[in-house]
Amino acid sequence: MTFKDNFLWGGATAANQLEGAFDLDGKGLNVADMKTVGGRGKSRVFTPTLDLETYYPSHKAIDFYHHYKEDIAMFAEMGFKVFRLSINWSRIFPQGDELEPNEAGLAFYDKVFDECLKYGIEPLVTLSHFEIPLGLMEKYNGFLSRETIDHFVHYATTCFERYKNKVKYWITFNELNFGTMPHGELTVLGLHPKGAFPLDEIPSNEQNRFQALHHAMVASAKAIIKAKEINPNFEIGCMMAHITMYPLTSSPEDVLQTKEYDLLVNKFVSDVQVRGKYPALIEGYFKNKNIELDIPEEDLDILAKGTVDMYTFSYYMTICVTQQHGAPASMGNLVGGAANPYLESSEYGWQIDPIGLEYTLIDLYDRYEIPLFIVENGLGMEDEVAADGSINDDYRIAYFKAHFEAMNRAIEKGVDLIGYTSWGCIDLISAGTGEMRKRYGFIYVDMDNDGKGTLKRSKKKSFDWYKEVIASNGQKL
Questions:
Q1: Which domains does the chain have, with CATH numbers?
Q2: CB atoms within 10 A of CB 394
Q3: Residue 440 pLDDT > 80
Q4: Are 308 and 302 in contact (CB under 8 A)?
Q5: Mean pLDDT, residues 366-385 taken together
Q6: Which among 19, 235, 376, 435 is annotated as catalytic?
Q7: Residue 194 confidence (pLDDT)
């Protein structure tokens, strides 16, 4: 096997799906705190004010806030080299625009990072993982205002300075390319939804969306420039939700539509963050859509200087693109498409495609030629607890095994892959539905969709399997 000796094996989480303690120690509300639980065929709802009779999953999550020592110890037992987590922005700046940070929030992450480092685990920290403070949405309409750029940079600088000797690996925004789509307006960019309604019915305004996305990319670049001044040894990545797509047929129309959709969804934002400039073809898209962005010349200079060191991304499944009407559909990570007849699907309708990961790694490294880091990948299933307490998730082991073999093949072909963190290494609430029953972890958490349960942690069969994978550096699968 060809994984590097210092390959970073680990797991990934997000504060709003993990921490709980939504109102403790000075924390303010964020956008995720205002989302109710949904379910299959039922969207989460964003409420402009909290309803005391409503269950909000992020308020409790799995209570990592009080279980972090136990959880990190279990990660260490698996042999994690890296643990991806996010800092909850509103735990540091409760409204988002304060001059002085909340010391209790900063101190919490000091304790978390110290616990990681005690076991030799490198923190990989996301600064904004769908956790924009509610105050910034209400006061500034999120990133539609240029003022939010400065508030993000102030927040990022505070974190860089506080943790400069504890955290080496950083990500500015999670899945920023979702800002190209209507569902990203609220979760990624913090645009005010003007009321309560299902998230999949958010009224779309492309002009505002792409202007806000531009501001977020400038904020990311300015933060990176500042980070390198504070500690030149920081390694900073973008974070793309890579929606790998194939044409459903060899029809030239399907092939062309796939190419154009891939450029918009997968390549546009990462071109800006990796190459430091807008791709030429996006100008044609804006022209056809009558989108005119306000981009001062100084912004272009900032984007050129504030580029990332590594391309970090999520990969769960692939979709097909077609102009045919009535083609069978498949689900995905907030984005669906036509079903691929050559692939099997999970019980949630996500098509399983390890070769697609190999293809993605080759495609990305060919385009960008910088180190790649898979920071989300995994299989969400409704795990069953046997009478003896065991959880035999052989399906999850088979999923990971096939994807690790694909990673190895890509490395053998010359791809510089430096790390891998499985999504939801411990069971946590779903970002899409707020449910608990769709589980990804190696560690089972006793909690149901209504937030009821003991929160007891227990090992699944995949726990010991992944432990052996890490110990052998991928040689024993």
A1: 8-471 (3.20.20.80)
A2: 10
A3: yes
A4: no
A5: 97
A6: 376
A7: 72
